């Protein structure tokens, strides 16, 4: 019963595009048509500034966090936490409300990880911030934080199911950042 309700709801929550909504409310251009064309906080920063980016980041983080936290409040086992998190994350990548063309998933994965365990999500965010402070490249920060997230999940929770969910999100996030990875290797990434 819970599975039949929780997973679709998590996907629908994940499908809400914070970037598009924030840009519409703030009178900014559609992020899918400006800058990098990606509906995420980094692109919103380019076209709308820090305030718009911060609101977008928070919205994307919450849509990953809330379904997992809600499942946790219901006392569901870790497999349902993992499925709720993955559903929200996939909703962000492939949103039903926006033609299945979504963002790259960095903030939403951070929210999912925070829902799994505050220390896992915190380690992801701290890693992103530390790498960004050193290199000033958002995509590199996201790639390193995401690559380390299954390790954080394993060592901080010891839960194989949550670790596998983190690993799946990492794989999808790396795949979504393929063009960024290519530009990083060619030393052309902004």
Quick recap:
75% of the residues lie in helices and 0% in strands.
Explain what this protein looks like in three dimensions.
It is built from ten helices and no strands. It is mostly helical. It has one domain (2-185). The longest helix has 24 residues, at 50-73. The radius of gyration is 16 Å and the shape is globular. The mean pLDDT is 92.
* Radius of gyration computed on alpha carbons: 16 Å
* Whole-number total of structural domains: 1
Distance between the termini: 47 Å
Percentage of residues in strands = under 5%
Number of strands: 0
How is this fold's topology laid out?
Elements: H1 2-14, H2 18-25, H3 41-48, H4 50-73, H5 78-93, H6 106-116, H7 118-135, H8 138-157, H9 160-176, H10 178-185
Helix pairs in contact: 1-4, 1-5, 2-4, 3-4, 4-5, 4-6, 5-6, 5-9, 6-7, 6-8, 6-9, 7-8, 8-9
Task: Supply database-style keywords.
190 residues, mainly alpha, 10 helices
